[in-house]
Backbone:
């Protein structure tokens, strides 16, 4: 992007403004456009009229008010990108001025206090809801600078007044920025204008600023706006010449966060500016339309809480009681935190520093300086949703001295970070000893307290007496299961931490870690049928206590209040819990491996306690989450995708065109054309493609591929693109959208509605925002090699095809931890395929631990695990990933989708990093790049041995016949067991039954055993010679082909370009859907050393016996049209089970994968045949090479415990459940066949029956 192109920096909001001018507010029932939720600031909420009055509107054909056309097209050209804007980002929209002499070369287009995804008022920071009337006197006061920085163009019959009113000021009337002490305050309109002029003036005067902003895309960080604002202090003149410059130091703040704008907190600027609380947004509007009142905070993720209420600029002041949000480290103790004006006193039962001074660094952040030596700790503080009469907050302190984590997620994923839950009584909780000096309590009026506590007790009554005849349902409600750290609120809080433990067998226990002498109090638990939040605790002495349980789901760490009130026993009872309230917190993710120090006692994700959907309005009102799975809503697993029938969300052609514009459609996309070797192939060749072109030569024009393809006629969407009967030549003539969406094995005829080809991060972000806004199911793909159609959604949706992200860089040193990559690293864009990676690594005399297939993509390979020719010596794919850059769709402070970038590595987001190395594809976000460890080419180079062998199924014991095979497999297994880490094999055993006639002559059945292996070293090494010679003995082969290569690329150049064809059709014979008889793809199993030694050879013969039996009795349900169950077998020893291979344990692949000696892929077996034979060799299968139909797929891919942890990570990082794929983390664990869930199922069913009707 060149900044001096027209409208160089224009935000997404600008696009939306242009489209949203029909004069009706979304508050109005008559508003026909449901997609116009983003721009309520334009309207008077009551009247639905546009806010400006000075001739900026015209009547539309229905007589409604319509905004006049903007004089400039706001976002309709390739060089006018529409980016995504996070909360707290400010955007300066600028325009090259070539029409107004006397104005600066760059003029202002707008200064926008923006919101996440441009979704309007509810996302405005600090609760600015409706803006305010524009003070038109401003136009006169600032006439000079306005016409200078905001020239108008007579050509458009546009007046400055009109333009400013319509395109600028309406957004500026609620500008709020964080001030010097971190407290947000609203800019008066006058100050707001001045801030804009300072920014525009600086931009014109400062080439460096222009240069840097060019790379920052359309964003001006909050820091930069603060900085411009500070320059306005004391500036009272109104002429252009008097516009002050920003200070140099201050400008540096604009770029302090590089391009990580999404995580860039406001700066802690030294300023003497006094903040005026009266500038806070008016209370009335704060609590108006969306019901978010002052006292109630939505769950905060990326938002900043800032003003708790307009008259409380220090919402932290007072005493909070806290406990660690982890089970290890800092979480061992509880303490009280008393905030005064700038000192935090910590009272604790641990050696934690006693006193900290604190400064506010931003609306939601504190910097603590703790202890005598002024050890500096950066802390993040976020207010959480109130619960059960308690205010709640989250505090994360980075003990390492590194900056505070950027968000709740990041905190829980940052090693060395101490995380705490903090509670205190709300003002309304009269008589609360827990935090008596809470400022809100002190400042509240008695009458208000009474009213509030009355209303609270109405909506949330104390539990009444318990009837013995109605004890409820045995056991605790699912959300209460687990081990909770707790503090008693109403009394005994000084006793410190208590631990509640609720188990699935209906038992509960209470312990006081600081008072072991108190022993354990035990209860049995039940809960009310009608009201699951009513929990009954029966003590050993028979006392029954009724408690009200309120639960607040938070990703990663949830909290609750247990409010115990009524008894049937006298107060002197030892177990009496009359009027005892507990504040509780516990970790969500849910296995022994939990990085958040979660224990198995909290392993209840599967029971529903971890579902982010539970944090919706019902949970916030204190209700329990709905029961899991058996309810229809839970079966959908939170997916709520839009379908073509739903016109309120399904994208219109106009919306699609806008997306296309955001993707810079005029930029040529030529990256997929392939000439011939030695150029690396950029993508796989689909079967039958003319001239071996990827994507059947799609985009073979000077302009290349289009940015976006879609089904003009949605009725075309769900039908096979590549008809097997038509033959491969016809596939070259398939529609463009079919070619754009092509991928391997289209089992279900589910095609994406839209396919986009992004060129950069901004394009991916635009696509994600679009998908989230339209509630489209999102799938991702690069090459399309994925075997199980995982890159297609049942409802159509959006396919983000990252094959063109081809950046590459060699990093001689891996900065995060050089020891992890002694030979350096490569960073590749997500579109990289192995041939390109090998070509590049050869230039640097390095090698990467790739897979066998040259056109497999980097991303899918590494997500699934990744075995290959160098795995035994250099590790699996997952062992070599150093960093992943991913765009995700998170939620903002108001639960709305917001796109943000995450870096996952050993240091950053380690939990996500763990999950993305082996947890499979599709559900973690869209990967932009991966950094992969480079390896030195082994001394002696890379040696290859190839032995082709042919034989028959002749039943006697002649050489290379059936009985010969039986003996050979035993020798073969023994040979495999001796292999060390230098050897990696991919033997392929192909059976050809095409010549078999029904006469029973098994000699007509032939086989070919292509035995290929790599040796990491030279051909003179003794091991090389040993393994080669022994293999010759095993195979009784004389012909051996041997090669030695200086690089892996040299090897690839010796392969034919169509060696690994991409099979685009559905391989199952019509009309077979995937079934246990035709499972699709390949059944796979990881074979351990032990199984290799004891069972492999006989199991292989069992499998061949199945083949022979099917020759005699063909099976009409077989995917082989002849009814045979033979197919072929790959027997990879390219894992980490060889002698001497290293087996690190820090990735998400299954234990069976890690320790396996071989991975066996078998085609054409039924589910039952697999279970009777190869599945018996090991409990795990390979995610990336396995059958479409699989029972217990969660256990086979990862093991149940690990799957639950993966699921928790998925939920934490994809809280809106935007990403889905077949048998990926988050799919229905009980569904073996890949039936679509919920609404998608209805859609597919409806679609299918309509199609049948059409077909007659
Ligand atoms: C001929 C052939 C040979 C193979 N050989 C090997 C081998 O030797 N070793 C081995 O381990 N595996 C092998 N595989 C399996 C291969 O690793 C998987 O099929 C893998 O998923 C392919 O990745 P891809 O990126 O090329 O495919 P794609 O189909 O493009 O992507 C696969 C999946 O990865 C995810 N994905 C892709 N791009 C992105 C992105 N930018 N962001 C987020 N997610 C993304 C998506 O979920 C997608 O469904 C082979 C497959 C084939 C077809």
Residues:
């Amino acid at each position: 992007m060149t900044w001096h192109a027209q409208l160089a920096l224009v935000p997404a909001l600008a696009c939306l403004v242009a489209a949203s001018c029909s004069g009706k507010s979304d508050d109005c029932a008559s508003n026909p456009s449901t997609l116009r939720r983003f721009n309520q600031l334009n309207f008077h909420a009551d009247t639905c009229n546009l806010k400006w009055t000075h001739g900026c509107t015209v009547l539309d054909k229905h007589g409604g008010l319509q905004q006049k056309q903007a004089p400039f097209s706001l976002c309709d050209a390739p060089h006018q990108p529409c980016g995504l804007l996070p909360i707290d980002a400010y955007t300066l929209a600028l325009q090259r001025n070539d029409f107004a002499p006397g104005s600066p070369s760059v003029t202002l287009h707008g200064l926008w206090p923006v919101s996440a995804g441009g979704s309007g008022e509810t996302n405005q920071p600090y609760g600015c809801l409706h803006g305010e009337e524009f003070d038109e006197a401003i136009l006169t006061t600032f006439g000079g600078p306005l016409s200078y920085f905001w020239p108008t163009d007579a050509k458009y019959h546009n007046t400055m007044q009109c333009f400013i009113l319509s395109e600028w000021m309406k957004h500026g009337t609620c500008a709020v920025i964080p001030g010097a002490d971190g407290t947000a305050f609203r800019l008066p309109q006058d100050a707001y204008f001045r801030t804009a002029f300072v920014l525009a003036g600086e931009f014109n005067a400062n080439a460096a600023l222009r240069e840097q902003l060019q790379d920052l895309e359309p964003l001006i960080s909050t820091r930069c706006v603060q900085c411009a604002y500070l320059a306005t202090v004391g500036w009272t003149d109104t002429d252009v010449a008097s516009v002050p410059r920003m200070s140099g130091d201050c400008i540096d703040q604009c770029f302090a966060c590089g391009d990580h704008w999404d995580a860039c907190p406001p700066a802690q600027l030294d300023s003497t500016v006094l903040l005026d609380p009266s500038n806070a947004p008016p209370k009335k509007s704060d609590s108006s339309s969306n019901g978010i009142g002052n006292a109630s905070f939505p769950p905060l993720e990326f938002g900043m809480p800032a003003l708790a209420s307009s008259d409380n600029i220090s919402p932290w002041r007072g005493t909070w009681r806290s406990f660690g949000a982890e089970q290890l480290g800092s979480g061992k103790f509880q303490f009280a935190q008393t905030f005064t004006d700038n000192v935090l006193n910590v009272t604790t039962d641990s050696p934690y520093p006693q006193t900290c001074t604190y400064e506010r660094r931003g609306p939601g952040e504190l910097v603590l300086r703790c202890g005598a030596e002024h050890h500096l700790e950066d802390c993040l503080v976020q207010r959480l949703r109130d619960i059960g009469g308690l205010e709640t907050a989250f505090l994360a302190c980075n003990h390492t001295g590194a900056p505070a984590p950027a968000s709740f997620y990041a905190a829980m994923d940052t090693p060395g970070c101490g995380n705490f839950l903090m509670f205190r009584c709300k003002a309304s909780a009269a008589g609360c000893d827990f935090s008596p000096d809470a400022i809100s309590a002190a400042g509240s009026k008695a009458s208000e307290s009474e009213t509030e506590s009355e209303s609270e007790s109405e909506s949330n009554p104390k539990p009444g007496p318990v009837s013995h005849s109605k004890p409820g349902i045995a056991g605790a409600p699912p959300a209460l299961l687990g081990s909770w750290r707790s503090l008693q609120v109403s009394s005994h809080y000084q006793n410190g931490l208590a631990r509640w433990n609720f188990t699935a067998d209906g038992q509960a226990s209470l312990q006081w870690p600081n008072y072991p002498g108190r022993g354990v109090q035990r209860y049995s638990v039940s809960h009310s049928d009608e009201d699951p939040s009513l929990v009954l605790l029966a003590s050993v002495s028979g006392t029954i206590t009724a408690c009200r349980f309120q639960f607040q789901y938070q990703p990663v760490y949830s909290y609750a209040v247990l409010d115990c009130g009524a008894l049937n026993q006298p107060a002197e009872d030892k177990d009496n819990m009359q009027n005892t309230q507990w504040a509780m917190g516990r970790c969500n993710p849910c296995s022994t491996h939990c990085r958040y120090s979660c224990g198995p006692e909290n392993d209840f994700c599967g029971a529903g306690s971890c579902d982010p959907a539970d944090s919706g309005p019902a949970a916030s009102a204190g209700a329990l989450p709905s029961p899991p799975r058996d309810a229809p809503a839970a079966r959908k697993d939170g997916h709520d995708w839009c379908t073509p029938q739903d016109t309120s969300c399904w994208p219109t052609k106009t919306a699609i065109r806008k997306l296309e514009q955001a993707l810079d459609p005029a930029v040529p996309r030529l990256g997929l054309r392939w000439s011939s070797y030695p150029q690396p192939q950029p993508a796989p060749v689909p079967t039958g493609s003319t001239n071996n072109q990827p994507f059947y030569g799609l985009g073979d024009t000077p302009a290349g591929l289009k940015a976006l393809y879609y089904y003009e006629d949605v009725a075309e969407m769900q039908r096979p693109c590549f008809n097997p009967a038509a033959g491969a030549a016809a596939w070259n003539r398939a529609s463009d959208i079919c070619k754009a969406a092509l991928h391997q094995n289209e089992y279900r005829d589910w095609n994406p509605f839209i396919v986009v080809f992004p060129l950069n991060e901004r394009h991916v972000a635009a696509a994600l925002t679009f998908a989230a806004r339209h509630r489209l199911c999102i799938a991702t793909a690069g090459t399309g090699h994925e075997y199980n159609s995982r890159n297609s959604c049942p409802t159509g949706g959006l396919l983000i095809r990252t094959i063109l992200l081809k950046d590459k860089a060699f990093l001689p040193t891996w900065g995060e931890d050089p020891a992890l990559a002694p030979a350096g690293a490569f960073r590749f864009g997500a579109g990289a395929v192995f041939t390109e990676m090998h070509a590049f690594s050869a230039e640097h005399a390095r090698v990467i631990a790739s897979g066998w297939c040259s056109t497999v993509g980097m991303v899918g390979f590494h997500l699934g695990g990744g075995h290959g020719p160098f795995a035994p010596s250099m590790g699996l794919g997952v062992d070599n990933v150093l960093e992943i850059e991913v765009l995700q769709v998170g939620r903002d402070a108001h639960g709305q989708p917001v796109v943000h970038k995450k870096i996952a590595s050993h240091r950053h987001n380690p939990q996500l990093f763990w999950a993305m190395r082996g947890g499979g594809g599709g559900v973690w976000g869209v990967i932009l790049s991966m950094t992969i460890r480079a390896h030195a080419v082994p001394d002696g180079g890379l040696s290859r041995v190839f032995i082709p062998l042919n034989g028959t199924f002749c039943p006697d014991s002649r050489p290379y016949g059936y009985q010969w095979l039986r003996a050979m497999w035993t020798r073969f297994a023994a040979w495999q067991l001796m292999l060390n880490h230098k050897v990696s094999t991919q033997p392929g055993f192909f059976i050809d039954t095409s010549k078999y006639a029904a006469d029973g002559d098994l000699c007509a059945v032939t086989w070919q055993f292509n035995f290929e292996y790599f040796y990491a070293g030279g051909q003179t090494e003794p091991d090389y010679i040993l393994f080669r010679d022994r293999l010759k003995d095993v195979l009784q082969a004389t012909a051996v082909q041997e090669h030695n290569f200086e690089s892996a690329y040299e090897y690839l150049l010796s392969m034919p370009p169509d060696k690994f064809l991409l099979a685009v059709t559905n391989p199952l014979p019509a009309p077979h859907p995937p079934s246990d008889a035709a499972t699709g793809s390949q059944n796979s199993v990881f074979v351990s050393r032990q199984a290799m030694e004891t069972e492999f050879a006989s199991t292989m013969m069992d499998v061949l016996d199945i083949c022979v039996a099917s020759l005699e009795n063909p099976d009409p349900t077989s995917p082989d049209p002849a009814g045979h169950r033979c197919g072929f077998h790959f027997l990879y020893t390219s894992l980490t089970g060889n002698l001497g291979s290293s087996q690190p344990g820090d990735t998400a692949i299954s234990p069976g994968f890690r320790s396996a000696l071989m991975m066996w892929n078998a085609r054409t077996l039924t589910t039952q045949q697999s279970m009777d034979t190869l599945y018996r060799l090991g409990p795990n299968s390979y995610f990336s090479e396995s059958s479409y139909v699989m029972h217990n797929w969660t256990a086979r891919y990862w093991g149940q415990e690990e799957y639950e942890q993966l699921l928790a990570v998925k939920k934490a990082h994809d809280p809106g459940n935007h990403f889905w794929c077949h048998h990926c983390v988050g799919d229905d664990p009980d569904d073996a066949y890949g039936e679509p869930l919920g609404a998608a199922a209805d859609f597919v069913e409806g679609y299918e029956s309509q199609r049948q009707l059409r077909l007659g």
Observations:
- Residues 478-566+581-586 form a domain with the Lipocalin fold (CATH 2.40.128).
- The mean pLDDT is 73.
